[in-house]
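== Polypeptide entry ==
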Amino acid sequence: MVPSEDAAPQLDVDQILADPGVRIVVCCGAGGVGKTTTAAALALRAAEQHGRRTVVLTIDPARRLAQSLGLTELDNTPRQVKGIDIEDSGGELHAMMLDMKRTFDDVVLQHTDPAKAAEIFANPFYQAMSSTFAGTQEYMAMEKLGQLHARGEWDLIVVDTPPSRSALDFLDAPARLSRFLDGRMLRLLLAPARSGGRSMFSFVTAGFGMFSKVVQKLLGAQLLTDLSGFVAGLDSMFGGFRQRAEQTYRILQARETAFLLVAAPEPDAVREAAYFAGRLREERMPLAGLVLNRVHRSAVKSLDATESLAAAERLAELGGHEATAEVLRAHAALAQQAVREREVAARFTEAFPAVPAVSVTAQPADVHDIDGLRTIGTAISQP
């Protein structure tokens, strides 16, 4: 039996966007499923249709979002999007792209004095961690979300989560940072700095002396010295990191947040969405629904693939109807694809039958401007 497109409850996106109690919408899912475009389309619709002062935060380093919003570039500061239809609604739209190093630098500047900040910025380990370490981008996305929320300037914040190997990394980043800060090895590295600023290698106890020799042999003296200096420099900030991470995590659990899973009707993307839905349920975070992008539909639902192929074969036997036969074969291929996609999507619905969903028909071309985003927003809201 072919699964029905109406198997899941219908997702009412406009109800979410118009609700003044919803201040954060988090779009999450696997990479390459249209997550960035969906986030931008939702933010545009919130501003134009519902009069909300909206900011969209993207983590995607590609220039697609900036171009589609008519901006020459995006950076760590919200930029107002001009040329949108807000005359009647009174809304506003701003956009920004996460710069993880700039965000990390801002945190350091906010929580240390200028001399200590300069020392931290010059540390090679900090330079590497703030730019390239796995997990830094996800944590800084959470940090930036917390900053935007605390400023209170926005009716709605729409977040496009990082294009990680797993979308779960966005939720795991604060916990991983806390484990790092509380780790036994880090406490050992921090001990020399707390003992009066003596060198890592002049801090002599039997246990730590053995430990430092082993680690020095494995990592090298310079790297270990850089790491020790980094740890000493950030010592006063560790509590603040943890506190802000926990605050943002609580915000994500609150009723003012709505998570929207974004997927394409492909096995890997739907599997990733199901993993994320399970995790949100475990963490008691508010899952609003699933947006299934790039769905293929047949315009003639009464003619299935089998009938279409049979008709094409009959016309081929009669001869003289090659063009019509090709159209029937193309229709059959589309109908077969639509069935496969419904079967894949049904795996999510079977696992989470109460989660509302909306399907967005595949567009004939990539979205590259405001009109394209507006079209996507309409498709999500009026399937």
Notes: Strands lie at 24-28, 53-58, 79-80, 92-97, 156-160, 257-263, 287-295, 357-361. Residues 193-212, 214-220 have pLDDT under 50 and may be disordered. Residues 29 and 167 are 5 Å apart (CA to CA). The first strand starts at residue 24 and ends at 28.
